[in-house]
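Memo to structure team: turn this sequence into structure tokens by end of day. - J.P.
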Amino acid sequence: MSNNNGNSNNGNNINFSEAEEVEIVNIGREGISYSELKKLHSLSMQTSTNLSRILATTTMTMIMTTSSSTLSSSSSLSSSSSSSSSSSSTPTIFSSKDVKISINNRNFLIPYSSFKENCKACNYFSHSFKNCPNIRPEFRDDDFCLNCWGRGHLSINCEEDSRIVPYNEDFLTPEEVINYLIYK
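Reply from structure team:
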């Protein structure tokens, strides 16, 4: 298949000249140029590749011993490595006390398969706040407001002050887990 505008088209890769500046505009938001979008995509792909490499080759187990507010302290995360260089184990990573990040627990760091929406309480994927494993069990019900965590109304109608999400002990946000994996 030929390309009449002079730019080469190898497979699905379309090469735009650097002089050609396309601006994507979202109504009510700042626009982003094509070159900025390319840089953002490149950074995203590089981060994804690095994270995949870390997850695939890491042989550590994260054990939460203190609250997430002391994440930077060396006692909040501990790791154990396999002494055998020939065997590699999959890392066990916890989002909160006794809650593994795994397919079996329906608790993912990133969108996976058909699970594209994140939990409105914890921001992990593949579950809703009604059955969020990262909030205390007594709040796993559809009768709670996500703003004040009171009963009897929805967050859209809430007139109360916002309250802290009742997370399980040692809860870590997805960002904290990813940062640990990248910068450990």
